[in-house]
Amino acid sequence: MPPSSAARLRRRQINFATLRALSALGRPRNYALYEDADLALQAAALAHGIAESQTFIDGNKRLALIAMLTFLEANGFAVEASDRELAAWIIALSAGTTPTELAELLRARVRPLPR
């Protein structure tokens, strides 16, 4: 039995969502290779890509924040900022904050993790 139009549409939506997510996950590498970006800008590009891609129905900004903090932690750094500040930074992405502007905020607050 051929798939219904609704099923085909749903598969297409899932495929587009997957492409948007993969695009966002590739941003740190692209920034590193083509813009010689430091870790702060790479993390900001990752957060921006996830927050603005609207891959999921809900939780894109929350995922962007967790991904940014995890990316920095995996690379040996932590952000010294309150939850309120972090939330404001991520919400500001929806208001037009660029990855470069977010990276400036991060650079002022990123510290190496103790070994």
Give structural notes.
The protein has 115 residues and is mainly alpha-helical. It is 73% helix and 5% strand. The chain is built from five helices and two strands. The chain has a two-stranded antiparallel sheet with strand order 1-2. The longest helix has 31 residues, at 5-35. The chain starts with a helix and ends with a strand.
Topology:
Blueprint: H1 5-35, H2 39-53, H3 60-74, E1 77-79, H4 83-94, H5 99-109, E2 110-112
Mean pLDDT level: 86
Count of discrete alpha- or pi-helical segments spanning 4 or more residues: 5
Q: What gyration radius follows from the Cα positions, in whole Å?
A: 16 Å
Summing up helix and strand content along with how strands pair, one would put the structural category as mainly alpha
| The CATH homology group name | Fic/DOC protein, Fido domain
Share in helix: over 70%
CATH topology: Four Helix Bundle (Hemerythrin (Met), subunit A)
Q: Element order, helices and strands?
A: HHHEHHE
Q: Termini distance?
A: 59 Å
Tell me, briefly, the overall form.
elongated
Taking strands numbered 1, 2, ... along the chain, how are they ordered across the largest sheet? 1-2
Q: What's the CATH architecture?
A: Up-down Bundle
- Percentage beta strand: 5-15%
Low-confidence stretches: none
The top level CATH class name: Mainly Alpha
Number of strands: 2
| Overall domain count | 1
Main sheet properties = 2 strands, antiparallel
